[in-house]
């Protein structure tokens, strides 16, 4: 058991230091002082939450009105948050937006939550169908497998963590950039080798864009003998709080194990549900799209 030592004395500690750090004589703060200190913390957090949740600039006046704080109090709070780079003030509109430190904290939190949540969902989806399930992310223009749960059956797609999959030929890749406009898709695939891996492999940017339109309409993509021989796959995008696609989850299976058609619909529904569970866990909203409207 860990033993905790007595709170250490500070050598040569000045009275002023004790007052600044501890708000008065060490250990002798009144209940009123404690309440006032907590009130400042709560007000600061409320101001921070207001700016984060607004998804647009917030002026000093608007912040004061919405939170019910005096202008002078609101100004002091916003100045501290700005000085500490949790928020930033636009020099033209004079409105406040999330700052560098807040964005970094948010990014780190999403990344850790994504990794933890995805691991649970990837494993659960794999165990449900006893098939290989992987998580992919777009990293430096490459679709990379970042998490994997392999089927226990002898016959399954061979893939490993860290492996990149073809941007044009894999559903696990296409869902990652399905929100890109056509020009951005062409830019991403510029110089990309459209290797004809299978007879049904997309052979041009236009073929890929047609796939992307289906993803936007139905919320998922399928790969039917496009990436590897006799392999069928279903993939769905994972979105963060801003609605941006940050990853994709994919289940792959040999063709014969994806029959009958009803089973494919069950797999698609489970893949989309897993993607939505992960999205919600990292702050995203559930999709309003229904996978029942598309054909595999």
Automatic annotation (TrEMBL):
It holds the Pfam family HTH_IclR. Gene3D superfamilies: 3.30.450.40, Winged helix-like DNA-binding domain superfamily/Winged helix DNA-binding domain. Residues 100-284 form the IclR-ED domain. InterPro entries: GAF-like_dom_sf, HTH_MetabolicPath_Reg, Tscrpt_reg_IclR_C, Tscrpt_reg_IclR_N, WH-like_DNA-bd_sf, WH_DNA-bd_sf. One of its GO terms (biological process) is negative regulation of DNA-templated transcription. Keywords: DNA-binding, Transcription, Transcription regulation. Residues 38-100 form the HTH iclR-type domain. GO terms for molecular function: DNA binding; DNA-binding transcription factor activity. This is IclR family acetate operon transcriptional repressor. It comes from Compostimonas suwonensis.
């Amino acid at each position: 058991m860990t033993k905790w030592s007595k709170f250490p004395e500070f050598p040569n500690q000045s009275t002023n230091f004790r007052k600044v750090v501890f708000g008065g004589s060490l250990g002798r703060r009144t209940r009123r002082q404690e309440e006032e200190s907590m009130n400042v913390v709560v007000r600061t957090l409320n101001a921070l939450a207001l700016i984060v949740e607004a998804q647009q600039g917030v002026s000093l006046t608007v912040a004061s009105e919405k939170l019910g704080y005096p202008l002078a109090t609101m100004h002091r709070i916003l100045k501290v948050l700005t000085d500490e780079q949790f928020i930033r003030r636009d020099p033209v509109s004079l409105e406040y937006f999330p700052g560098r430190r807040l964005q970094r904290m948010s990014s780190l939190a999403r990344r850790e939550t994504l990794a933890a949540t995805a691991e649970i969902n990837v494993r659960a989806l794999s165990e449900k169908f006893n098939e290989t399930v992987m998580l992919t992310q777009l990293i430096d223009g490459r679709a990379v497998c970042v998490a994997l749960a392999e089927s226990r059956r002898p016959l399954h797609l061979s893939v490993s963590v860290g492996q990149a999959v073809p941007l044009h030929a894999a559903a696990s890749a296409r869902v990652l950039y399905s929100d890109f406009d056509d020009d951005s898709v062409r830019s991403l695939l510029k110089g990309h080798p459209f290797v004809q891996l299978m007879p049904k492999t997309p052979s041009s940017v236009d073929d890929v864009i047609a796939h992307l339109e289906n993803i936007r309409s139905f919320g998922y993509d399928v790969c039917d003998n496009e990436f590897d021989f006799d392999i069928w796959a279903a993939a769905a995008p994972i979105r963060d709080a801003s609605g941006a696609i940050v990853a994709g989850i994919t289940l792959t299976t040999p063709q014969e194990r994806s029959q009958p058609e009803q089973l494919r619909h069950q797999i698609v529904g489970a893949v989309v549900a897993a993607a939505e569970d992960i999205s919600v866990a990292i702050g995203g909203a559930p999709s309003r799209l229904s996978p029942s409207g598309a054909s595999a």
